[in-house]
Amino acid sequence: xxxxxxxxxxxxxxxxxxxxxxxxxxxxxxxxxxxxxxxxxxxxxxxxxxxxxxxxxxxxxxxxxxxxxxxxxxxxxxxxxxxxxxxxxxxxxxxxxxxxxxxxxxxxxxxxxxxxxxxxxxxxxxxxxxxxxxxxxxxxxxxxxxxxxxxxxxxxxxxxxxxxxxxxxxxxxxxxxxxxxxxxxxxxxxxxxxxxxxxxxxxxxxxxxxxxxxxxxxxxxxxxxxxxxxxxxxxxxxxxxxxxxxxxxxxxxxxxxxxxxxxxxxxxxxxxxxxxxxxxxxxxxxxxxxxxxxxxxxxxxxxxxxxxxxxxxxxxxxxxxxxxxxxxxxxxxxxxxxxxxxxxxxxxxxxxxxxxxxxxxxxxxxxx
Amino acid sequence: xxxxxxxxxxxxxxxxxxxxxxxxxxxxxxxxxxxxxxxxxxxxxxxxxxxxxxxxxxxxxxxxxxxxxxxxxxxxxxxxxxxxxxxxxxxxxxxxxxxxxxxxxxxxxxxxxxxxxxxxxxxxxxxxxxxxxxxxxxxxxxxxxxxxxxxxxxxxxxxxxxxxxxxxxxxxxxxxxxxxxxxxxxxxxxxxxxxxxxxxxxxxxxxxxxxxxxxxxxxxxxxxxxxxxxxxxxxxxxxxxxxxxxxxxxxxxxxxxxxxxxxxxxxxxxxxxxxxxxxxxxxxxxxxxxxxxxxxxxxxxxxxxxxxxxxxxxxxxxxxxxxxxxxxxxxxxxxxxxxxxxxxxxxxxxxxxxxxxxxxxxxxxxxxxxxxx
Lengths: 368, 373
Prior knowledge:
The complex is a heterodimer of chains A (368) and B (373). With 368 residues, chain A is of the alpha/beta class. Helix content of chain A is 67%, strand content 10%.
């Protein structure tokens, strides 16, 4: 036991000696959460628009004011002819041009109909979609108000309830994802690199001839990273809770249980990678391509899995982050209990068993 | 000049001797383009829809059909109780619940105003915004239809004051998200390959101790930095060409503007990015440190650059911080050139800024590189 404690002590010294890596390990989650919380916005806001209004009557002016007062748009310039639209879009500042036809109010009154055009720069298709939908919405609600005075308006109004996340805060989406990513980084990548480095520099041999048993070597390697991961997880949760008012609607105990389970899965993955890689670069490469990329992209972290092609959906299903993210998102934001997340939990447990048995079978007591 | 030539010779020989190098150069673009572009998609096609119809009138049925036949929604069930439908949303089995209250049709014809409820699973705010946009478009289209038909029926007001709103989406009429993502991913590809390889290469010499041998030669500091930079600069530019080729082949991305302009900008941008990578490696002692510093830097810059959310909607301080984010410039410019065909005059200020950046980065890296350890 004393030898084992000594071994853990050595691991801690290794970690704390490398101050720069340590700063990154604790700085990365903090910076990420702040970026996701404050910088990444889902809503469009202050989109620069140009307006072509040769009519300049009370109605077009009213509509323009409505558009600009909504907070979605800000007027960048007034243009005189449709020919200049192309040049404006190419400059890239303006994303939307609104064109009123000539004699707009007059036509509306005399002929009962007038037309306007919305030209959106769809090189960013999602924003374009929202820009058009919001402009339409603003114009039609203005028109229905105009008509409300004269006759029955005949309007169906949607009442929208944004469930679980009324303000559409992006932090709701990203806190669970960032947690998965950071835990992967610390548990899997760091562990695998640190074991492989011992192999590469030859110090593994010194440890192998010591009276420590293989299981103790692995446990000693892993213990410091379990601690680091737990600290990171708690920091992320606290930041989410206090800075972004992220609710924890379900049981905290269950949340921690799932987190510990995922940390174990990630650590066993790290050990498995270390048993198959010969150099630090290979370990980094496998971790980056095999773990970080999928955690970012194939987990539902940022992009919904349902939109992906079938093949990638299968790929998502065989990777652990998807299950962890889906489970803690449910527990934190929807208040689900173990009864609803048992499937995810079971899959993670099975993966843990699988990875541990593979690493146990491949771990070699002797060097080649 | 001759010295640089000799360093280059050494570097290229080392790069091509390394057997893992060629797979990295050719496989990463494939993996990135195939997986990232397909995974990073906001093309919402199967929004899981549940209808709760308490009205069961012809009006509610007509509007339901509009939702069902829209290409964006997939009906996964009709429920009669709100609790049941909410339970399904809790289990991720529904993204949108459309609820017609009792008296939906009657209210419209008697009071002229009727409401229906949309419940959106908003944990992912981005998709929730889109679901909301799609639904309100369907509803306002339906409103227009009712107005037109009622105007004809009642003959009450011919001049009912109707505004026809036409809209058109420029540069990407079918709103393909891939056209937006491929250029963005090319930026990440170039930066990832160039910066990581250059940074890891320099620090490996440190770790192995071979840098000492170079330090005792009369090679100048700037010659060494330039010699380390050029090989990866060439590789990264090759990656851009290869990536563009793959993007055209696999996704048929539009190339509207001048390729020459794109490569000219990329060349300057890469000097800035690689200069930063080398600066990072002069600051660190081990490959692990370099790796983590680079990773940290890259992921922060990528997220801030507006890869999947428009940079304009970011708060002002973030937009100002993007002045020192090299990726933000290239992310903007590559999309402008490829998708809109912008010319030199449109991107002149970006070009100037990135040139200043490149010079600064190289100067800093040279200054930080010490010939004594």
